[in-house]
Amino acid sequence: MSHPLLNERELDFLLYELLDTEALLQRPRYQEHSREVFKATLETARTVAERYFANHNAKGDANEPSFDGDKVHLIPETQEAWDAFAEAGFLAAHYDFEDGGMQLPEIVLRASMAYFSAANIASTGYPFLSIGAANLIQSFGTEEQKSRFLPPMQEGRFAGTMALTEPGQGSALADIKTIARPAEDGSYRLFGQKMFISGGDQSLTENIVHMVLAKIEGAPAGVNGISLFICPKVLVNEDGSLGERNDVALAGLLHKMGYRNTTSTVLNFGEQDGAVGYLIGEPHKGLQCMFQMMNEARIGVGMGAAVLGYQGFTYSLDYARQRPQGRLPSNKDPESKQVSLIEHADVRRMLLAQKAYAEGSLAMCLFASSLFEDSHTADTEEKRRDAYLLLDLITPMVKSWPSKYGLKANELAIQILGGSGYIREYPVEQYYRDNRLNPIHEGAEAIHGLDILGRKVIMKRGAGFRLFNEAVQQTLQQAKDSELCHEFAAPLSEALNTLNRVTETLVGKLKEDPDTTLANATIYLDLFGRVFAAWLWLQQALKAAEGLDTQCGDSDRDYYLGKLQAARYYIQWELPEIGAQAELLMQFNSVPLDMQDAWF
What we know:
Structural class: alpha+beta
Largest sheet: 5 strands, mixed, barrel
Number of helices: 19
Mean pLDDT: 97
Distance between the termini: 48 Å
Strand content: 5-15%
Shape: globular
């Protein structure tokens, strides 16, 4: 069964109809580009992804990386994929021309990355993390640090990682134990252990640049004592040549249920005299710097979850169209021809749910990338500030909603394939295993629930939350004037009012009783995410309605009608579930909070 990575019509709709990416060409930074340049970039990404990444997705899953005590071994196709990615220029694509890049907009880069993640989420992990680590150095490094580390990272000779988690501390970064001791030459010596470090060791590059969180000796307790360090696997001399091996040792590889071709490592820093590290940014303010890479990674994790959900959706859709099984309930003739699976209403329900989750997730992630772009290149300071505030608010949902519902899409894909769905001869079981890591990657759901309710909705006196309300209200007004979309306006308006009431109630008690208020923060995160997704689906429906008003052909007409039906499904079937969630939240239901350890 031939299976494209992504639907190009879908990507064009999201980029140019929903998000108007072509308007970026009016901004000074992109005036040398054109829509044809964007298209060629995406075509290059698709070609490289199909040729060098998709070819070993299953092989990398079946043949995990191994460590012989000296070197990590990967299947050779992984090296070919890394080299092809670097040679195509994607490691530096978003940098300015004078810095060796293609000056590519963020949203075009992330749409390109979607092809690689769809082809092989595990092998894409290496460049994905390397881009984030290089961006961190670009934003906060000294000129000397930039000149020493960025060129080889952009060329693909060095890779990058983020080293946050420790064996005794997962998401509780305030309690990390890794220590940094000042050295006479202005550098530091790091001592500690990091765990679950994706790409922490590999045989693809001549060096790996670890971005490490640690506490300088004598630093304040808590997050205000965390600093950020560049810690290369191999030391780099002033002339750019490689020096001696740094005191960073691979303690072992971890074996995951998915993403198997991305090494997951335990790293020991300072088994001997201490790993040489270079402070990046100000002392004790490392977490503020690292949040750039963390938030970038959160959007990237959301995108990975979205495309894995999309892969399962399109595969199960093709399967349902081709596989004959059973007859409609109205047909009592056992000798009549069987119908395709897609003729059964319950199969169409599962496909429609997958479409709503997968396409909604793609829209969510690309919308976030467009806000990132606007926060840097919009034409006024006010627009840049508003884009940043709105992006900051929605990032917890952009990470968590696709991770939750992309996975649900994969579960439904397995269900549609039946017994074939859970055997390895079919790819949907791997999509599910790969995607199951994403609700944990870059913070479990509860972390993002605490973040959005405990911090984001009240930050800047609720400025981001007000911007969200204003944006939804604008879309609602457009929907009320649309013949095809006015039916969606009232349910979303009611849902927005519910979100506002719940938020006001919870925030009102936050200072008085944070434990009770935040006990059900994950439910609040899901409620908010449903409203956010419904808003994006209404925007897609409005653009589909506009498309139907034009002289579109049969294929476009079917495409737009499918968009409207998916919006109808989501708003009528999925959005109403916030009612029960709101009731629990506004009652400050304490059943889980009141449960005692001994009662289990």
